[in-house]
Design goal:
This protein is mostly helical. It has eleven helices and two strands. It has a two-stranded antiparallel ribbon. The model has no long low-confidence stretch (mean pLDDT 75).
Length: 264
């Protein structure tokens, strides 16, 4: 009489892969939970960056660091190539953010550490990707949202650089909000003149913001507010982006049947 061999228990790697990539209700809830955590940490980092440097909230810092470290470890375990996963931009950002959250255990909570945490904004690309999979409104406005994400990341990154380089030497920039204010007025060419750069480094930085930043700022802003293209694959030529009211493909002239809210 033959006995059936019991099935082996799923490995830790298999369980983690099911959570991160599976289609079950549990995995969906898990990814939505990570999404909520990402959004909450982004808000937390933006708010705390604007607070005075002496304000301490180490308890929350350590909890966030532990969750980010656990997420990074899990993603490393399920990655096909461990070292390549650890060298990816998202992994490097997470490691820097973890360091900035735990550094006050050894060093003072310096201002540049809070600015370093703004790198977590780069995770907003992951946030948009997850929202696209669960919310139809995000799928329909993906191009505008991507441009808005690029714009926010760029503005906050440039503001962080201004704050780190000029925060101690320029009396007009005493907080991250001052740096953000200066960056936005420079990018929009408003130039109120209440905050000016007086040293060589600051002036070079201002030139870079005006030459490179203004063009990028305008391009991203135009993309956000111009009429959006819809994604529909033309059966004849394969073109995937068309005007919302298009009847024929502008590339090959084939008749299109783009789904709208009123019907097909």
């Amino acid at each position: 009489m033959s006995s059936k061999k019991p099935e082996s228990e799923p490995t830790v790697q298999a369980k983690l892969r099911a959570l991160y990539f599976g289609d079950s209700r549990l995995s969906t809830r898990f990814r939505i939970g990570l999404l909520i955590f990402d959004i909450a940490t982004l808000i937390f980092f933006v708010v705390t960056t604007a607070l005075p440097t002496g304000t301490n909230h180490f308890g929350l810092d350590y909890i966030i660091a532990a969750v980010i470290a656990a997420d990074l470890a899990a993603r490393t375990i399920i990655a096909p190539r461990t070292w390549r996963s650890l060298m990816s931009p998202f992994a490097v950002v997470d490691l820097l953010v973890i360091f900035s959250l735990l550094a006050p255990l050894i060093f003072d909570n310096l201002a540049f550490l809070r600015v370093l945490r703004m790198l977590r904004l780069l995770r907003s690309y992951h946030v948009v990707k997850e929202l696209r999979g669960h919310v139809a409104w995000f799928r329909n406005n993906e191009d505008a949202l991507r441009s808005a994400t690029n714009l926010v990341v760029f503005v906050f990154f440039v503001s962080a650089v201004v704050f780190v380089l000029e925060g101690r030497s320029n009396p007009g920039i005493s907080s991250f909000l001052d740096a953000l204010y200066f960056t936005v007025t420079s990018l929009t060419t408003t130039g109120y003149g209440d905050i000016t750069m007086t040293d060589t480094t600051g002036r070079i930085l201002t030139v870079v913001i005006m030459v490179v930043g203004v063009a990028l700022f305008l391009r991203l802003a135009q993309t956000m507010f111009r009429p959006q293209k819809v994604r529909h694959t033309c059966e004849q030529c394969g073109l995937t982006r068309h005007d919302p009211d298009a009847v024929h493909c502008k590339h090959c002239g084939n008749t299109l049947k783009i789904k709208t809210e009123g019907g097909d």
